[in-house]
Amino acid sequence: MNLLDKRTLRHTRIRKKVIGTSIKPRLSFYKSLNFIYVQLIDDSIGHTLIASNTKDSSFKGMIPEGSLKNKIAAKKLGEIFGKQVKAKGFESIVFDRGGFQFHGVVKEFADAVRKEGVNF
Fold it and tell me: What is the average pLDDT across 36-62?
């Protein structure tokens, strides 16, 4: 069993328990080989409320140099996304880490969102 299969199994197990509602939407996190993608999703109607990623040209100028998938980029994306969530009027959300282990980039992103005042 390779790492992709393990992540897929973890993600399936997490998604059985984590469901977003209109009051408490789901924050979906995904990291590819080069970028980080996040979405705020209302699963009851199947709509994406907010979406952000490190691929945007406006975001690329905020990171001095290096990878757009490292801890620095995750922290900056978390700050920006946390502000967007607060601006939409959500105080608490549920966090779907996408099967990724909660350390490194995922932890930095989550801590930055929490620092902006969003509870999960």
Answer: 92
The third-level CATH classification (topology) of the domain covering 3-115 is Nucleotidyltransferase; domain 5 (3.30.420)
Spatial separation of the C-alpha atoms in residues 73 and 108, rounded to whole Å: 9
Distance, in Å, from the CA atom of 58 to the CA atom of 107, rounded to the nearest integer, reads 23
pLDDT at residue 53 is higher than 90:
yes
pTM score of the predicted model? 0.92
Instruction: Report CA dihedral (82, 27, 61, 104) to the nearest 10 degrees.
Output: 100
Cβ(106)–Cβ(97) under 8 Å?
Answer: yes
For residue 58, pLDDT beyond 90? no
DSSP tag of 100: -
CA separation for the pair 47, 30 (Å, rounded): 17
